[in-house]
Specification:
Strand content of chain A: over 45%
Oligomer: heterodimer
Helix content of chain B: under 10%
Shape of chain B: globular
Number of helices of chain A: 0
Shape of chain A: globular
Distance between the termini of chain A: 31 Å
Number of helices of chain B: 0
Largest sheet of chain B: 5 strands, antiparallel
Structural class of chain A: mainly beta
Largest interface: A-B, 26 and 24 residues
Radius of gyration of chain B: 13 Å
Structural class of chain B: mainly beta
Number of strands of chain A: 11
Strand content of chain B: over 45%
């Protein structure tokens, strides 16, 4: 068990809808990362937060947004959903904002299916 | 643009043999590199980190090498077991705020 909790585990919704994915990092971890993994693609980095502040952005669509709250949990909001957004969404956490001595600990993901 | 390449084809080996997985990167110079294991439907699990000034790193049956001249890392599993079957991901790191993964190599160890 990595200590990273993601809810819900599964989510089925229709095109055009909006969903919120939630992540609770490991106790003591200040950094949260979000990744998307589709069947035909590897892990795609979306965004990183450290202690409530956005630190790095990857290929995150404008329809997607995220935030990290004072209690360090994070939410990823996906809006105007399209079929192509169907994927596994992973959250990961680390102690620091530097990855050199602080590897990522991943949750088991939220499987999003857009119909 | 930065590119990370891992064998897209699955690697099938017999139990007890050594599995060797390759990670090649282009257009950047990572200061260190991480390897992760991912089982189907689960999140990746961190295995090893190697720095650019370290040629080799070992942990139990795992060994990682890092050749900055060849821009390549090799990941070895000795005395492989069916339980080692999984997808292995490499992540060369230059910018410490991002962790960009390769597409992974699926390893299948058969008895």
């Amino acid at each position: 068990d990595s200590g990273v909790t993601q809810t819900p585990k599964h989510l089925i919704t229709a095109t055009g809808q909006r969903v919120t994915l939630r992540c609770s990092p490991r106790s003591g971890d200040l950094s949260v990362y979000w990744y998307q993994q589709s069947l035909d693609q590897g892990l795609q980095f979306l965004i990183q937060y450290y202690n409530g502040e956005e630190r790095a952005k990857g290929n995150i669509l404008e329809r997607f947004s995220a935030q990290q709250f004072p209690d360090l949990h994070s939410e990823l909001n996906l809006s105007s959903l399209e079929l192509g957004d169907s994927a596994l969404y992973f959250c990961a956490s680390s102690v620091r904002d530097s990855l050199e001595n602080s590897p990522l600990h991943f949750g088991n993901g939220t499987r999003l299916t857009v119909t | 643009s930065q590119k990370i390449e891992q064998n897209s084809e699955a690697l099938n080996i017999q139990e007890g043999k050594t599995a060797t997985l390759t990670c090649n990167y282009t257009n950047y110079s990572p200061a260190y590199l991480q390897w992760y294991r991912q089982d189907p439907g689960r999140g990746p699990v961190f295995l090893l980190l190697i720095r650019e000034n370290e040629k080799e790193k070992r942990k139990e049956r795992l060994k990682v090498t890092f050749d900055t001249t060849l821009k390549q890392s090799l990941f070895h599993i000795t005395a492989s077991q069916p339980a080692d079957s999984a997808t292995y991901l490499c992540a060369p790191i230059m910018n410490t705020d991002k962790l960009i993964f390769g597409t992974g190599t699926r390893l299948q160890v058969f008895p």
